[in-house]
Structure to design on (278 residues):
């Protein structure tokens, strides 16, 4: 949705739905309630949000939840410049070793947060609040946004189905064949079956059954993929991410142009010397 079409009323609807689902206790919910007069300009509404340091415009409002105080509402420019959507930032992308004290409880909390995020975003969609699903349903066919490249396979590992569908379309319009996986186990199966055919891998860090780091480690130990370019995609800031084993980092949200140019740059680094890069 164009930013100019987002009103204070729409923001109020997004906040109200979020609070209804995030807080079972009405008294606690009321403590986090926030309301803007209907005629409040969006510019003024956004002064209550925090401007995020990303390549595209993004604002966050930390409202928390009954079980986790750090969850946020995001209003972000989503992949295509000028197109904005609401999303829930779980803000729980922290790496816990399987041997860490409390790891099982932490994984359970992450799963709960993921399910809450999906519930809120589904409710927003039904209430006509612009979400990633709306963008997914838009036709991404603007030839001046995408550039055509080699047509080789790119593996996309992310458990956000709407984001996967959008990035899949971006990659397809960019000339790639996108193969996707939504879990660590599924991504390892793809690596085992198609590793030699992959020109690059895009991996989110927080997956339902582990961390993206585990996939990168497995790739670096596999002769078929040890030199395959890896791009970490994450909502965390680069300073909070261990990028040592990766070739590039993209912080969500990123634009279609950003992701295509980043893939082109890392692929060129690996293949140009052998004359394989097109």
């Amino acid at each position: 949705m164009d930013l100019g079409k987002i009103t204070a009323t729409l923001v109020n609807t997004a906040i109200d739905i979020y609070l209804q689902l995030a807080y079972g206790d009405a008294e606690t919910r009321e403590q986090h309630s926030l309301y803007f007069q209907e005629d409040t300009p969006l510019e003024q509404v956004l002064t209550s949000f925090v401007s995020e340091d990303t390549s595209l415009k993004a604002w966050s409002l930390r409202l928390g939840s009954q079980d986790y105080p750090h969850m946020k509402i995001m209003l972000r420019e989503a992949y295509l410049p000028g197109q904005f959507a609401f999303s829930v930032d779980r803000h729980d992308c922290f790496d816990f070793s399987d041997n860490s004290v409390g790891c099982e409880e932490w994984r359970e909390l992450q799963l709960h947060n993921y399910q809450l995020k999906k519930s809120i975003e589904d409710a927003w969609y039904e209430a006509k609040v612009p979400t990633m699903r709306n963008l997914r349903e838009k036709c991404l066919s603007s030839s001046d946004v995408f550039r055509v490249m080699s047509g080789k396979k790119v593996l996309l590992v992310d458990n956000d189905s709407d984001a996967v569908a959008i990035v899949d379309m971006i990659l397809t319009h960019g000339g790639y064949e996108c193969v996707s996986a939504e879990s660590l186990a599924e991504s390892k199966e793809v690596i085992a079956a198609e590793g030699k055919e992959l020109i690059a891998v895009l991996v989110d860090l927080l997956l339902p059954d582990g961390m993206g780091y585990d996939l990168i480690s497995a790739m670096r130990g596999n002769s078929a993929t040890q030199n395959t370019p890896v791009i970490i995609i994450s909502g965390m800031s680069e300073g909070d991410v261990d990028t040592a084993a990766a070739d590039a980092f993209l912080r969500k949200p990123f634009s279609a142009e950003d992701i295509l140019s980043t893939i082109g740059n890392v692929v060129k680094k690996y293949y140009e010397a052998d004359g394989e890069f097109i």
The chain has two domains: 3-135, 139-274. The mean pLDDT is 84. Residues 103-126 form the longest helix (24 residues).
